[in-house]
Specification:
- The complex is a heterodimer of chains A (345) and B (553).
- With 345 residues, chain A is mostly helical.
- In chain A, 62% of the residues lie in helices and 3% in strands.
- In chain A, strands 1-2 form a two-stranded antiparallel ribbon.
- Chain B contains 21 helices and 19 strands.
- In chain B, strand 10 and strand 11 form a beta hairpin.
- About 2% of the residues of chain B have low confidence.
- Classes of the chains: A mainly alpha (345), B alpha/beta (553).
- At the A-B interface, helix 6 and helix 7 of A face helix 3, helix 4, helix 5 and helix 14 of B.
């Protein structure tokens, strides 16, 4: 399959486009794209069955439409009135408010489907491996925590069963004590056991270089520059350029410090994945989609990206070129292959 | 290779030392087995080999340890990890990541081993332990034996000279345990790796061992004696031995047999020394328990159950009579625990019927069922949370609203369980065997008519097992029906009247213990392998049977 960085880029592109485009037609295209990519690429699930995006859509669209319809009382097509004395929901329930809420629900569904695909195609551990070397320890901790979650869930189930066979029923908060105490103790015992096993396997034997004072000072300087630039951008409208320059310099300094700190971490990676042409093609697909939505291109009507049903409901516009551009996100499904082992060295 | 000189060690806060003036050596390339009762310090001794004791545990240590020229006390476990690979009892508890290859590579990645060399080393251990086909599998999807082999592979990633294992087969079925042992024998024999292993069940390991180290019970007649030497020499001085050795000692066989093959030759001589036709006369001899009542306590009919579409039980039918002890055996994942959970209502079967004393248990909830059925799960610690042993029993009575009129006296039950002196103790501070008995008390204080036990002897030494069998026999004599899930074939041979074998969720054999165990290649106890066709399963059977020969001949 594809590199974890590619999947991250694909997910972020879909997220940005879904959040920017307020047009239900484009959102529907995006939803179909994510469903197709999930169906084609999302095979390595280890038996996990994800919640269907269509089921999520039914719940999210209904709830969002209902909430917006009841709480937003603007729009030119009132459907019915609720008594004014009812706080928040009292007033006209309009078709426009319901449609706006439904569009929000659809956008939420696209975002859900987007992350569902990421969850299906990339193990979280591969994403953790993308963390900069400077945060290696944090990555290991997160990795262990991820292993602990299913183990703790299994323990909880086992302990509940064990307590049930001695006649225990959970009726109130206090009844959780016989479950929580063994769960905590077994969790602590497991942590100690794992720590012992890690030490026995040499974890911590290669001591990472301590960060010199200079690195720490540069990090503080970078953070100050970033904060100062942001404040200047917010409160000195006449000197926004200085603010932007400060933010860029600060961010650059922080990235540089993280890179420097990472050089001091002694760690290698087993089976680092090789970048392939297909990875590049998927990235190009993401770039195409991002470009048609974010960059003004002659011949394309970018105004169609933003749609509002207020004040009066109209049909949402649709530019076929932008619609086609969104299909750039289908690249993972188009260039997908099952030869996993060929990709790794 | 390994040298202990007058080593003593005391855990932090403990009043007495767990190891006292221990002097011991293990030569390079030896396969050394550390044996002894629970709590005698076997795990502590193993942890001294890589410096986990005292670096990880704290405490006071005196004397010296030398391991392949290193001093674990001075250098610490991280440095010793390059020399000593360590495998713990529960493989799952030591896994850091979730895939086979990643788990093996974890230590190498953290030691900054170059990727090319890492690839070679991972490949090497995958092949050594026959794990190559499983390299991409999630650890969750592996069997118990496969998981333990992954743990061994991970410990070998640094190419250590010594491999130390703390009860690596205690949670495995006989076949998986044999697979792990064969892997160890190959590593020891072909690669020259020094192996030091602690175990309770000696019978399957003794044939492969060069050196046996026995740590005697400090409270016993030998005091803190440490015996070390050839297995035959040390076994002569051990109180509790595997059945084959115990029989050899009882019949004064020379040399003391360590393998069934050795024992079979001696057994033939023993039989041939008797009168002609003796074998026929003793065939099928086995002490009988009191005559069972005709009615049935537990009746399971056509039970079926699936986990997410995967069949775990297929039309299981079995019965247990009052006062009968039935052993339910089978490989890991054959459906034994699932069956027990279906009986007590923790799982709802797809079809089939379960009745207790003629009453259907279908549709009743677990709490209601467990008023009459005692179920001891695999992990006794899951039951224990109270401050004292006495409270554990009181809580069960309170849960069932039986505090005012308990079916059995909690004090009396604790006395029968041998826990009278520990009434006020904190349950989790007790030994494995004692915790198991507290848990047993917590589920039997309602005086159940049926008792279901899931792997009750896991981690127990021979003495603790013997005590448990005595207790179960008492309950059995009082009419309690017992269904015992176990991998311990010697326990089944000692205790069970009948054995039911499960495979892939189906009952494949159901009959008297002597018939089923005697006929099974995997589940036959040592005595049944020595005297095939006689119906003998235990040392007591043989001794009684041979008396018959002598008397008859």
């Amino acid at each position: 399959m594809f590199d974890a960085r590619v999947w991250l880029a694909w997910t972020l592109t879909t997220l940005v486009v879904a959040s920017s485009a307020r047009n239900p037609l484009y959102a529907a295209v995006l939803l179909m794209v994510t469903v197709v990519v999930g169906a084609v690429c999302g095979h390595d699930l280890d038996g996990r069955v994800p919640l269907s995006p269509f089921r999520f859509a039914v719940v999210a669209i209904s709830l969002s439409a209902l909430f917006n319809g009841l709480t937003v009382h603007i729009g030119s097509t009132p459907l019915f009135h609720l008594p004014e004395w009812i706080p928040l929901v009292g007033g006209a329930v309009t078709l426009e408010a319901l449609v706006f809420g439904a569009i929000n629900g659809l956008t939420l569904t696209v975002i859900f489907s987007d992350f569902a695909v990421l969850n299906q195609v990339t193990p979280v551990r591969d994403l953790i491996k993308l963390t900069p070397r400077a945060f290696h320890e944090a990555g290991v901790v997160l990795s262990i925590a991820l292993t602990f979650i299913p183990q703790t869930t299994r323990s909880l189930k086992r302990i509940r069963e064990a307590q049930a066979v001695r006649g225990h029923r959970v009726r109130g908060l206090r009844d959780w004590l016989p479950i929580v105490v063994p769960l905590l103790i077994s969790g602590l015992e497991r942590s100690m056991g794992l720590a012992e096993a890690m030490v026995a396997r040499g974890y911590g034997a290669v001591s990472d270089r301590e960060q010199p004072l200079r690195t720490q000072a540069l990090l503080v300087l970078g953070l100050l520059a970033l904060l100062g630039g942001w404040l200047a951008w917010l409160f000195l409208p006449a000197r926004k350029g200085i603010g932007v320059a400060g933010m860029v310099a600060g961010a650059g300094l922080i990235v540089g410090v993280v890179w420097l700190a990472g050089r001091g971490v002694s760690h290698t990676t087993y089976r680092r994945r090789r970048w392939t042409v297909r990875d590049t093609l998927v990235l190009l697909g993401c770039g195409l989609t991002l470009a048609v939505v974010m960059v003004p291109i002659p011949g394309m009507d970018r105004s169609t990206v933003y749609y509002s049903p207020y004040p009066g409901l109209t049909a949402p516009p649709f530019d076929p070129f932008i619609g086609l551009g969104l299909l750039g996100l289908l690249a993972p499904a188009i260039f997908s292959t099952r030869r996993n082992t060929d990709d790794s060295i | 290779m390994i040298q202990f000189d007058h080593l003593s060690y005391t855990y932090p806060g403990a009043s007495r030392s767990v190891l006292a003036d221990l002097t011991l050596h293990v030569d390079e390339g030896e396969f050394a087995l550390v044996a002894g009762p629970s709590g005698v310090g076997k795990s502590t001794l193993l942890r001294c080999l890589n410096g986990l004791v005292p670096h990880f545990t704290g405490g006071t240590l005196s004397g010296s340890v030398s391991v392949a020229g290193h001093d674990p006390v001075a250098e610490g476990p991280q440095v010793l990890s390059r020399v000593v690979g360590f495998v713990f009892q529960d493989p799952e508890a030591q896994f850091v990541v979730d895939r086979v290859e990643d788990e093996i590579a974890f230590a190498l990645e953290n030691a900054a081993v170059p990727p090319a060399e890492m690839r070679v080393r991972v490949e090497e251990v995958l092949n050594l332990l026959d794990l190559a086909p499983l390299r991409d599998r999630p650890l969750d999807a592996l069997s118990g034996g496969e998981k333990q082999r992954v743990a061994i592979a991970a410990a070998l990633a640094f190419r250590p000279r010594i491999l130390v294992l703390d009860e690596p087969t205690s949670q495995l079925d006989p076949q998986s345990a044999e697979d792990v042992l064969q892997a160890l024998v190959r590593l020891n024999g072909d690669m020259g790796l020094t192996v030091v292993l602690a175990e309770h069940r000696l019978e399957r390991i003794l044939p492969h061992v060069d050196r046996l180290v026995y740590l005697a019970d400090p409270a016993g007649k030998r005091g803190r004696e440490v015996l070390s030497g050839s297995p035959r020499h040390v076994l002569r001085h051990m109180d509790l031995c595997p059945p084959l050795v115990a029989l050899g000692k009882a019949l004064e066989w020379e040399p003391l047999p360590l393998t069934v093959k050795e024992g079979r030759a001696l057994a033939k001589e023993e039989i041939s020394g008797s009168a002609p036709g003796a074998m026929k006369r003793v065939s099928g001899f086995r002490p009988k328990h009191e005559t069972l009542k005709p009615e049935t306590a537990l009746q399971v009919d056509g039970l079926a159950f699936s986990y997410n579409g995967s069949r775990a039980l297929r039309d299981v039918t079995l019965a247990v009579k009052p006062g009968e002890m039935v052993a339910l055996m089978g490989r890991n994942g054959s459906g034994k625990t699932t069956l027990l959970k279906c009986i007590v209502g923790l799982l709802r079967p797809e079809r089939g019927k379960v009745t207790l004393d003629g009453e259907s248990l279908g549709g009743r909830d677990t709490v209601d069922i467990c008023r009459h059925v005692g179920y001891l799960p695999q992990e006794p610690d899951d039951l224990l949370f109270a401050d004292t042993v006495a409270d554990e029993l009181a809580i069960t009575l309170r849960n069932h609203s039986l505090v005012k009129s308990p079916p059995v006296s909690p004090e009396g039950l604790l006395a029968r369980l041998g826990l009278s002196d520990l009434v006020a103790s904190y349950p989790r501070d007790l030994s494995v065997g004692e915790r198991q008995r507290v848990a047993l008390g917590a589920v039997t204080v309602t005086r159940p008519r049926l008792l279901l036990l899931d792997e009750p002897t896991r981690g127990m030494d021979y003495a603790a097992k013997r005590e448990l069998v005595c207790l179960l026999r008492e309950w059995q004599a009082e009419g309690t029906a017992l269904l015992l899930v176990t991998h311990d074939v010697e326990l089944a041979a000692q205790a069970a009247d009948r054995v039911v074998l499960l495979s892939q969720g189906e009952v494949i054999a159901d009959g008297p213990a002597a018939e089923v165990l005697g006929a099974s290649p995997f589940f036959a106890p040592q005595v049944a392998r020595l005297f095939p066709g006689t119906g003998w399963l235990t040392v007591a059977d043989v001794l009684a049977g041979l008396d018959v020969i002598d008397g008859g001949g």
